[in-house]
Write a structure and sequence with these properties.
Blueprint lengths: L6 H11 L3 H23 L2 H17 L10 H44 L2 H13 L3 H11 L5 H8 L3 H21 L13
Helix pairs in contact: 1-2, 2-3, 2-4, 3-4, 5-8, 6-8, 7-8
């Protein structure tokens, strides 16, 4: 028998459907351990598992209106993560030789870089990535990150659609994530940097 979400979780889902990033962050961290464990069994890599779970949650966020009709949130999240795992495994089988070469050439430098970088330097890297964003995307990111405004609030303030704000934030996040990855940093906490 499928378990329905609790009253507290139902309220959380309603907030997420309304665009509440903090509520989404609570949901993310609630299910992160079990989903990471699940994805790690598939990928045999905790780093890859974290990335898969992050990507799955980006998709859930983009399609959050569908959460309103979901009875079993845990099963719904497992489905997203399963799909991401299968896509990863298909790609790995196709590009296995290339991936192995990349692992060999980058493993040592990535570990050394990660150990050498402290929180202040990470913040500098993030600031640098944000500075490179187009003007409006930068403004949207800062309104969300620095002023804690929700997607609907930003949309109203700038006179644009909520979808435009949402897409801008997702693209901005990807830019920040790519910048961090270039330095060998894959910290799951930065998934919610701008919420």
């Amino acid at each position: 028998m499928a378990l329905k979400h609790t009253e507290g979780e139902k309220e959380l889902i309603e907030k997420i459907v309304g665009g509440d990033g903090k509520a989404f962050s609570i949901l993310f961290f609630k299910y992160l351990p079990v989903l990471n464990s699940f994805a790690t069994k598939f990928t045999k890599s905790s780093d890859t598992a974290q990335e898969i779970v992050q990507d799955a949650f980006v998709r859930v966020w983009l399609n959050r209106d569908k959460l309103e009709h979901v009875e079993n949130v845990k099963a719904y999240l497992y489905k997203y993560v399963s799909n991401e795992c299968l896509a990863y495994l298909r790609k790995k089988l196709k590009d296995e030789k290339v991936i192995d070469k990349l692992k060999i050439s980058h493993s040592d430098s990535s570990n050394t870089t990660s150990e050498a970088i402290d929180l202040n330097e990470i913040n500098k890297i993030i600031s640098s990535a944000v500075e490179k964003l187009p003007q409006q995307r930068k403004k949207i990111f800062r309104l969300s990150r620095n002023e804690g405004k929700t997607i609907p609030e930003i949309a109203e303030l700038l006179g644009i659609s909520s979808n435009t704000v949402k897409n801008s934030l997702v693209i901005a996040l990807k830019s920040v994530k790519d910048e961090l990855s270039w330095y060998g940093i894959t910290l799951v906490l930065y998934f919610f940097y701008f919420f």
